[in-house]
Amino acid sequence: MQKKQELRGQEARTAHNSSRKLVYDYLQAQMQNGVLLPGSVLDLKGISQKLGISNTPLRDSLIQLEAEGYITIYPRSKVVVNLLEFNDFPYLYGIIGTIEALLITSALDKYDADVIREMRELNENMRQCVEAGEILLYSKYHYQFHDVFLRLNPNLLAERVIRPIKNRLWDFPRKNFIIEWYKAAVDEHECIIEAIARNDVDEICRVVKDVHWGIAHNKSYILKEYNLEES
């Protein structure tokens, strides 16, 4: 009897987690596709009906999205997709730059010739995408390039911190496409690859933290790309 109850409880938890992931993936896709824009108010009843789920997994998914900075929940009022303001960028960029530099430099022995070749191929794919104006495909290779750092030095805490930040930065539709910024990013990737190939820790930290994720280096591009005003 006890085993049956435990099994039912486990099945209920599995179903609940599955529904929660369904809601989370749906809302994230809506944001990525520009259906839900910053400042949009979520139609919770409509989402619940569309996905055929109850309020509990919907609420849990909203809590997760709020923790990741996507939305703000106003009790007994509304749920709003957050705006991305320029004042957020120094912190978002600083966190990613610091963590990525640490991930790379603490696992340099894993960057063998095959990994270097893979990174160069991904970066060349990005270069071709920029020249062709294929920004969605560029984003795919961009994710893969930066995921190499976590793949070679897996760390759950680092992943939980930087992945939601990257999603916020890269997934929301942007107002403008600044081709010079994307070209500069590809060049910076090449500098990162070369520094890794030389095992040059100081140069890795400089390029990753101060250039690629440096707020002073990227400020003008950020303001244009996201159509923001410096406050």
TrEMBL record:
GO terms for molecular function: DNA binding; DNA-binding transcription factor activity. Residues 17-84 form the HTH gntR-type domain. It holds the Pfam family FCD. Keywords: DNA-binding, Transcription, Transcription regulation. The keyword Transcription regulation applies. Signal peptide: none annotated. It comes from the Bacteria. InterPro entries: GntR_C, TF_FadR/GntR_C, Tscrpt_reg_HTH_GntR, WH-like_DNA-bd_sf, WH_DNA-bd_sf. This is GntR family transcriptional regulator. It comes from Candidatus Desulfovibrio intestinavium.
